[in-house]
């Protein structure tokens, strides 16, 4: 695992963009993408570049259940706004969380998509509780795409994007830890003091399902990009 400290999110986005270009030059075809504030500068770098993504496939980590694609808070909407509208892929997959009753079938469809398109480079953020995607503490490491009851801490952390906490969905569909670990390479962004504990556990803690990101210690190609605040508790 490589840890790169950056001044700010713009520098982090630039470093990740250079890594992306290396992976594409080496033949990467399938990108695993994430939402949240942490990857935004990375997407800005892509949008500002002359990179053509129209031959590639993207597969997103997760989506809320019970809000449809056009809802401004949906991850579909986020991806269109920050990347896909400017840089369309050949195909972009996101979990279909719009119809709650369809959840189990949507999970099955997503696992099939993932088995057909192995991810070359997975982009991740991290939750303050150490979640990756929406794999909350306690999620078995063997899990593939699944329906999730969001942690109260995640609902509260994500309330900043909604008018009030009662509007935050309480369920999501997320790729599982197994799907994430199957990606050939991983870049994880972490910014700000609220991520200190999660990053400490990820890099130096025991590998435990109580801190889902700690499993990344067992992945052969992970780059952590973080600012001084997020990395402050590491023994370096
Ligand atoms: C959400 C997403 C995660 C993301 C996390 C951190 O819970 N499901 O994929 O990593 O938020 O978000 P941020 O980057 O805004 O801190």
Automatic annotation (TrEMBL):
The lineage of its organism: Bacteria, Bacillati, Bacillota, Bacilli, Lactobacillales. One of its GO terms (molecular function) is identical protein binding. The keyword Hydrolase applies. This is Glucosamine-6-phosphate deaminase. Residues 25-220 form the Glucosamine/galactosamine-6-phosphate isomerase domain. It comes from Streptococcus massiliensis. GO terms for biological process: carbohydrate metabolic process; glucosamine catabolic process; N-acetylglucosamine catabolic process; N-acetylneuraminate catabolic process. PANTHER family: GLUCOSAMINE-6-PHOSPHATE ISOMERASE. The active site is at residues 62, 129, 131, 136.
């Amino acid at each position: 695992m490589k840890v790169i400290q950056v001044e700010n999110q713009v520098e982090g986005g630039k470093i990740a963009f250079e890594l992306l270009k290396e992976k594409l030059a080496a033949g990467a075809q399938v990108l695993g993408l994430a939402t949240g504030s942490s990857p935004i500068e990375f997407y800005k770098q892509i949008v500002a570049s002359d990179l053509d993504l129209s031959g590639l496939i993207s597969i997103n980590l997760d989506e809320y259940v019970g809000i449809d694609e056009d809802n401004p808070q949906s991850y579909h909407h986020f991806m269109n706004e920050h990347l896909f509208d400017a840089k369309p892929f050949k195909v972009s997959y996101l979990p279909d969380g719009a119809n709650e009753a369809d959840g189990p079938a949507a999970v099955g469809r997503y696992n099939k998509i993932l088995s057909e398109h192995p991810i070359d480079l997975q982009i991740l953020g991290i939750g303050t509780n150490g979640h990756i995607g929406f794999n909350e503490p306690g999620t078995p490491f063997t899990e593939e795409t699944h329906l999730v009851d969001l942690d109260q801490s995640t609902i509260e952390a994500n309330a900043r994007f909604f008018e009030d906490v009662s509007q935050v969905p309480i369920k999501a569909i997320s790729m599982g830890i197994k799907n994430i670990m199957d990606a050939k390479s991983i870049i994880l962004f972490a910014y700000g003091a609220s991520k200190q504990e999660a990053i400490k556990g990820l890099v130096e803690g025991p590998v435990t399902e109580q801190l889902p990101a700690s499993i990344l210690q067992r992945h052969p190609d992970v780059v952590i990009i973080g600012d001084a605040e997020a990395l402050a508790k590491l023994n370096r």
